[in-house]
Structures are given as C-alpha cells and as structure tokens.
Amino acid sequence: MIGQLDSSGRLRHLLTLDGLPPTVLSRLLDRAQQLHEDAQGGTALRHVLAGKAVCTLFFEPSTRTRSSFHLAAVRLGADVLNFDASASSTTKGETAIDTFKTIEAMGVTGFVIRHQADGAVAALAEVANAGTTVINAGDGRKAHPTQGLLDMLTLRQAKGNAFEKLKVLIVGDVRHSRVARSDLHALHALGATDIRVCGPRTLLPDDDILEGCSVGQDFDAALQGVDVVMMLRLQRERMQEGLIHSIDDYHRDYGLTVERLRRAAPDAVVLHPGPMNRGVEIDDEVADGPQSLIRLQVANGVAIRMAVLEELLA
Amino acid sequence: MIGQLDSSGRLRHLLTLDGLPPTVLSRLLDRAQQLHEDAQGGTALRHVLAGKAVCTLFFEPSTRTRSSFHLAAVRLGADVLNFDASASSTTKGETAIDTFKTIEAMGVTGFVIRHQADGAVAALAEVANAGTTVINAGDGRKAHPTQGLLDMLTLRQAKGNAFEKLKVLIVGDVRHSRVARSDLHALHALGATDIRVCGPRTLLPDDDILEGCSVGQDFDAALQGVDVVMMLRLQRERMQEGLIHSIDDYHRDYGLTVERLRRAAPDAVVLHPGPMNRGVEIDDEVADGPQSLIRLQVANGVAIRMAVLEELLA
Amino acid sequence: MIGQLDSSGRLRHLLTLDGLPPTVLSRLLDRAQQLHEDAQGGTALRHVLAGKAVCTLFFEPSTRTRSSFHLAAVRLGADVLNFDASASSTTKGETAIDTFKTIEAMGVTGFVIRHQADGAVAALAEVANAGTTVINAGDGRKAHPTQGLLDMLTLRQAKGNAFEKLKVLIVGDVRHSRVARSDLHALHALGATDIRVCGPRTLLPDDDILEGCSVGQDFDAALQGVDVVMMLRLQRERMQEGLIHSIDDYHRDYGLTVERLRRAAPDAVVLHPGPMNRGVEIDDEVADGPQSLIRLQVANGVAIRMAVLEELLA
Questions:
Q1: Is pLDDT at C43 greater than 60 in this prediction?
Q2: C169 forms bridges with which residues in the sheet?
Q3: Which residues in chain B show pLDDT less than 70?
Q4: Contact A106 B43 (CB under 8 A)
Q5: What is the C-alpha to C-alpha distance for residues C120 and A37, in angstroms, rounded to an integer?
Q6: Does domain C145-297 have CATH number 3.20.20.190?
C-alpha cells in the first residue's frame, strides 16, 4: 500500500515504520549500533556514498533533524544539498512535485524530505525515478520513521532486546505527534505488549493507532511501574487552539517531575524527541537527571540516519 | 565593451552571451555534452577544482539556480560557500562591492553572482582581482548566460546542430526576461534565422534585442510550424502592475495547451526555464507531455555550469 | 577565572584575549602568518581536521564572520555544519544550552559560537564535554578574540613586532564594541603603551577596559602622530537610542577623511573590522586608499581562524 518496498521486498524508500518487515527494522538497528560504536573514527566511511548527492528538502523548517541527516550523509561521503523549500520557488507557486523533480533532474538520488502535510512525502516517492530513494524526515502527523528507529535503538541499548517484557508509556500530545505514531509502529513490530498512552482527552487521537494500547488521562496512574517514559513536546499553539487550558495546568497534570518519576520502575528511563519545553512537559531535574536518555537519543539519531542512508543509497 | 574576454581573447568572466565568440560558445556546449554523458560516475572530476573556493553570492534569492551551481561546483571538487547577500551585511548598509571584495579577500576565486539590477554583475567583475573570475547567474533583465547555454545544449540534443533550419518561438514576458535575452543572443550566435517572439504588447521589450526576430501578439499564428516553443514564466506581479488584465486572460491568450501545441510541427519541443506556473503559461498536459524537455533542461543546467566553472577556474 | 585554559595551561577554548598567555598569542600569530603565506596551495592541509565536525552556531546572524570560519575549517578538511540558531528551535523555546548540547551529541567537537549576550559563549563552554572545544565568534560587547588576533597579525605585517613603539588610536563606539575590547586586550598583551581611545562621551565605556589608555572626545587631537587608526563601525541604532545626534554630526566629528588622516604619521595605517558605513565613520578615499589595510584584515581573518581551529582541534 505505501510502496516503500520494491516487488522483491527490498527497501526502496523509508516512508513509515508501519508494516516495515521486522527483519529490515532489526537490520537497521544492528547496523546503527555498529556505526554508533565506531563513531570515533569518522573518516573510514567516506567511500560509502562518495560521488552521490543527497538533498535535504524541507518544506517545513527543522534545523535539528536536518543537521542530523546532514552530518550522517557527510560522514558517509555524500555531497549534501540543503534545500529550504519553505523559502524558495514553492513560495513562487511551484508545486512540491515540480520542486522535487527539478532537484532530481540535477542528479540528486537521495532525498530526505519533511513536509507539513500527511502523506506528502509518500506522494513524492511515488513520482520518483527508478534510481531515486526518498526518506521521510517527518510528514504531517503521520510518520517520522528515523525518530522511531532511533528511539528503539536507545531502548535496546538501555533495556536489551526483550521488548515483550517492557512497560512503555507515551505521554502528551499524541494526537498531533508523528513521533508517537512511529514509536507505536516500532514498538508493536518489536513485540512490546504493555504500551500505555496518556494525555488530555483533547490531545488523544481518534485513529486506530491506539489499538493494543491502554489509554488514559491520569498520568500518575499510567506511570505505575513503567520501564520507559516517552515524553512528547507540547506545541504552545495547542493553547490558542483551545485544546489545553493553560501551560500551568498542563504542567500540573502532564509535566514529568522528579516526584512523579518515582512512580515508575526504579530503573525507568526517560526519552524526549526534543526540542524540550523545560518546565512544561518536563522538569530540568528529569531532563538532566540520571534516568534521562535524551542526549543519547540525539547521538543515536546520527547513527540511525547513517544506517538508513547506507541501506538505501549504497 | 563588457570585458569578459581578456586581451588575448580568453574567457575570463562569463557575464553575457552577447558577443561571446562562437568558438567559445561551441566549446562550452561540447564540453557540457560530454559531462552530461558521463554524469553517472561523479567522483572522477573531484581534482578539477580541488582546493579552489567558489562562492554563490546571491543578492536576489534563487534556490534553484544556486543549487544547480552548488552541485556543479561540488562535483568538480570545489569548496562552495553559499552567501545569501539579501540576508547579510548588505542589509546593514554595506555596498555590494564591499561584500564582493570582502569575500574575495577571504581567498575565494570563483564567484557565481545574481543581482536584481541590470549590469550589477559586470560592475563587480570590473573591480575583481586578476585571479578572480565572475559568472553571471542572472542580473536584472539583462542576461542569464548559463540558462541560455543550457537551453542551446537541450536544443542541440533534440534537434541537432543545424540551428539555421530551426523555427523557434519565444512566448511571454520577454520585456522582463533575462532568460529570453540570453536565449536570443545564443540563437543568433548559433545561426538561427527564423526566430519569433510573441506576447502581449505590454510585455514586449523596446530595446534592440528583437532585431532580426518576427514579433507579434497572436500566439496561435506564431506557433504555426515551429520546431521549438520556449515558454517564459509569468510573474504574478505583472497583474498588479497593470501589464496584464488577469491570469485567466493571460492563459486564454498565451497559455500553452495541448490543442495549441498542435499548431507547431509534429515533433516540436517545449522548453520552460522554471519554476512553472502550471495552468497559467503552461498546462499540465504539455509540461508533463512527450514534447516537453523541461527536466532535461535542468539536467543540462548542471552540465553547463560544470563546463563553465571548469573553463574559467581550472 | 574564564576557564579557557586547562589545568596544565593548554588552550582548550578560545573565549577572550583577556589574560591569554602571551606565548599562546604569539604562537597563534606565528602560525597564522605561515598559513597566510602558503594560502595559495590550499589542498595540502585537508588532513588536519579530516573527519572532525565543526559547527558554526550563530544565535546572532553574521554572514561575514561565519563565512570566514567556514572557509578556514573547510581548508583544514573539517565537515562544517552551519546552524542558524536565530531561525531554529531556539525560537521554539529551546534554551541555548539545549541547542548546544544537542549538536554536541550529534558528534560535533568544534563549536564556533556567536551570541548577543555577554558571557553566553563562556557559559556554553562551561557545559561542554571533555572532548569539545568552543571558539567565541563574538559575544555581546565583551569579546571577539579572533578579530583581535587578526588585527594584531595585520599590524605585525605592517609595522613589525615592536608594539611598544606604536601609537595606536581606536575611534568610535567603543562602549558597545567587542572588537575594541579584544583589540585592547591584545595590544596590552603585546606591549603597546601609547593607546588612545576617542569617541563621543555617550559611546565611551564605563568599565576598566580603558585603564592604561588616554581617552578623549577630540578626534583631531587624538590623531596627532599616530601610527595606527582603528575605526569602529557605527550602528545606526545609536541615533534612535539618542546616543548620537545625527549621522551628519557623527561624520563631522568622528568620520575619517583624507584631510584628517594627514594628522597621523605619514605612514599610518587604517583598520576597520567591517562592514563599513562609507561616508559615516570612514570616507571612500580612506577606505580604498593606500593606507587602508581593510582587505588585508579580511585575508588575515581566514588565516587566524585556521590557526585557532588547528591549535584547538587538531
């Protein structure tokens, strides 16, 4: 249905973790783990994508994600073209497809694309030439597959491979979160069974993404005994939209404090995709505390993106 | 008069195709053709500009043209500095010359410059040091020489070398178009004799650029039997300026539809410099149809820019 | 106190010239001189930082300084990530420290940081990992150490090593100038004793930076017999802030004209950190005249930044 696999089952694009064969998922995690471990060297991988051009094509700005892909591609020896489509011809009325096909015609074969609309990245992959590969760097609220992968790599490093034994809690604005969706796809694929989702009713999704999860509004109850707390960023727009009362209320009900974290398992770990709103969804003491894996997530992000670029382009 | 040739007739800058010796023009096309053909390799040309610094200095933003030059320079092994002068010290009151001379003092020897004012790029070339070369990436309405070259390369690939036998039609806002001017310079230099120009009276130029062309307002009549249709982009500002009545009127009179294209020769080809206003100057069926060479133009753009950079900097 | 030296006295960060050991300062100048002399080659230094990632992290935009560091890093073979923090997550409420630590987690070990607040760069250096080095590219009004170094390199080239014999005049908005502060630190360290500072009372600083300088408001008097005139840029905001009456008044009292320059020594040299306000603090005839070293400063800027990057990262 999504067309990220070719007719022989090989990965051609990375658009979503939804339905990604577990063998591919595991291979990407294994390779990223290895890349993460020999990250110190650096120069030895320049041949992998030497002479290949990779474009980060962002219709919605994101300096962090773009920087992570940029560093990953450069370490593999690719030429990287940063194309800020929010500040270019698209604003002159050019369609996203024309922008994409134009850069493709320049000889770029790897695309890292972010777009604000659900499904827009898959639509571009559909019109790609045979030799072109598309990596979804986040589209709408649908998918952010490399974030899902880097979160799984981080959990594997902290908790091992036995995802079926993990109690995982995802907290916050799940409704608007592509990160949550990709995490849920990956957790299901890796065999997690105790998945809890928690947030204000207005920020919980209607769609079938929550199948197999236990869902609630009570953060304290949901935290009981969990091994993993995955916090989501709260967009301040949600207040203007009337979806939350106030930042203070949100922090009181859904902010992760040191006290609250004590309800989780003693060795529970905390993840956050960044950028953080300190004092809103997460307190300083947690973000910078011993249970936080937030910096490790960022480091793993580069390794995952290297693994994905290598898998698809090398 | 323009000083792009040195005293021994060698090309020192590329400012315009006006008066460019046909031998130089042909050499650039031949070299670009060769680069286009072995574009798959990629790495083998890194030595050509290794250790040289090229700056894309854009006083007027253009992500497409800059990306094309960027990829061309990188494939030849140059270090590329993207300098967005519309967002820099120039806005702090620095003159364009000071910005240029400052970057030159940093050791940059190749400049790719776009500027909104006629003649501004030539003025910068005039103050360049002996070892510095300037490539015009579009100035005012005067010249866009690499676009002219890539259009000629595209026509040669489609129609062969016999430009004297070609019937060529240029359509649209010729008055404000540097693309049209550079195309006209190149077509004349390569020996084309049946050159037709068509557009609303308000968008036709006063200057001597139209010498040797047949000029008219009737698109349907002008299309009769032509081998090449070169469409120009319509800037939507022209409506606010009162130069056209409405987008709908413009499309009715000057939009290239499938029906209209049937008036041209059966094997006529269609060019457009991009970005396209689909449904305004060109319909989807034409832009994406079998007679369209629009993506090929983009691919040739990189090859032409590699040839120009090599000629001037290697 | 500032923590740019490690416990064994080695330079770990470059945050300020204030208190920098004269041996380190001289070593950087010597190395930059050598790099400046063999700048023609270019490729031979690619191994120095091969495989290292350098991020230019600018919380306040500055295309010139960033370009200079970019070219310096690229010539040494580093991968360079340009991170415009004024247009990124920081505007989404992320703290500067989180932005910094995030990019550090991506594997970047060299940071070139500009920030509008005094001391912000040192604060980031304090939270850096053991293997990370921070270079101050200008913070608040406190320090711009590479500008101070490049000015000293320029003076050495023009006037030799005997700083104790030089009569140096710094003119303009010293109050708000990090350039002036870094120049003063360096001049004192190199043994200059006749340092004069001149500007309108409202633009002279209160702090102890002027210790050991002769200070006045009369430009003509201060110019008598000086060997070096260091002009500062006048920010036009100073008029809105009521710190100067008008641009015309400022030019009359503190603009460097050819006539005025005759009061200095016959072989006096003129420096300006750029970008220049021609016709305000400096006239064309001076800026482009035989006594101006302004372009040489820019060229030396790249050499100094290469020397600093090599010293700290190689």
A1: no
A2: C196, C229
A3: 1-2, 39-43, 87-92
A4: no
A5: 33
A6: no
